[in-house]
Amino acid sequence: AVGGGHTSRARVLGPALQRAGAKVDFLFSGRDRNDMYNMGVFGNFLTRFGLRFYFNEKGGVSHIKTLLQNNPLKLLWDILTLDLSKYDVVVTDYEPITAWAARIKGLPSIGVAHHYAFKHDVPKGKGHNRLFNFAMQSFAPTDIPLGIHWHHFHQPILPPIFTRPPENNDKNPRKILVYLNMEPLEQVTRLLEDFTDYDFMIYHPDVNEDYDRGHLKLRKPSKMFKTDMADAAGFIANAGFMSQTEALHLGLKILVKPLDNQPEQASNGQALVELGLGDMMESLDKRAVSEWLQKPPGHKISYPDTETVLANWIVSGDWQHPEQLINDLWTQADGFVDNTIGIDHDFPTLAA
Questions:
Q1: How many whole angstroms separate alpha carbon 241 and alpha carbon 261?
Q2: DSSP code per residue over 121-176
């Protein structure tokens, strides 16, 4: 599926699989090819319409638009006509066409995505009801679903897969990186205008040219985002997964505002709070920002090289005991009080 997090993981896991000796083809769905950028690493990749989520003006999922603008017959056709005859295994980042095609045609499948973590006992925010859980489990089912999360929560979940951002040990305590890209820009600037003791680097898609408004530094989306993250002291953003992972890896203080009607984001915010790794506000709240700015610096979490270890495991063809893989990876994480996990769950038998 094509979202920022899905594509970012593919940029890391795909090359890791190739280094491990696999021949890899890529299929993306959920976004038009013309809307994709910086895709050279994927070679001659395939695209399909897939299932798409449509959003309202507040950045939340519009259930009506999503129902009306998807085409279930087209989805079924793409699943049934996808040729998997030359492949040994499908590895899917919560992409429905490849997942369902593998299931229907009897090809082994391994799911690697944040969404699969919600099959387990992890923090869940509002909106995680039975209907939503059923929809999540039916969206892209796989033989071995491997969720990824910031912590194992004593469940069979992998550490994150992400691009390591550049590091700068010389943090600027006044510098705060802001990425509330689904919120109206004027509301974001109004939220931060009173805190003149800090410099806010505000990246937003509605900014066409970089400009400064005093302590508010308005920036258009660019590669400089990662550079600014490297020496920032804090990160204010919606409650996605990948950018927050990078912020944790760099030790930034985190404040998230989950999008409306997005149970995954609500759960991400809840997880950060329960882990003591971040704070959450339900709305763009100046009081919440003020209290967060007074808190101590963030806590750095060093995650292991999950993608390389996982890629070698996938290419080995011995997929019977992912719990050992998971245990070994978490013992390499650094920054938690206790890394012991002791995962010994029953996974389905899957022939190579």
A1: 16
A2: S----TT--HHHHHHHHHHS--SEEEEE-SS-TTSSEEPP--PPPP--SS-EEEEE
pLDDT tens, residue by residue, 289-348: 999 999 999 989 999 999 999 999 999 999 988 999 999 999 999 987 665 666 655 555
The contacts of residue 51 (CB under 8 Å, 6+ apart) are 1, 29, 30, 70, 75, 96, 139
Q: Is residue 147 within 8 Å of 124, Cβ to Cβ?
A: no
Q: What is d(CA 108, CA 352) in angstroms, rounded to the nearest whole number?
A: 7
Q: How far apart are CA 305 and CA 249, in angstroms?
A: 12
Query: With contact defined as beta carbons under 8 Å apart, do 113 and 94 qualify?
Result: yes
* SS3 label, residue 237: strand
First and final C-alpha spacing in the chain: 25
**Per-residue model confidence (pLDDT) at position 5:** 77
CA pair distance 5, 94, nearest whole angstrom: 11
Token pair of 121, please?
């006992």
Q: Whole-angstrom Cα distance, residue 123 to residue 121?
A: 7
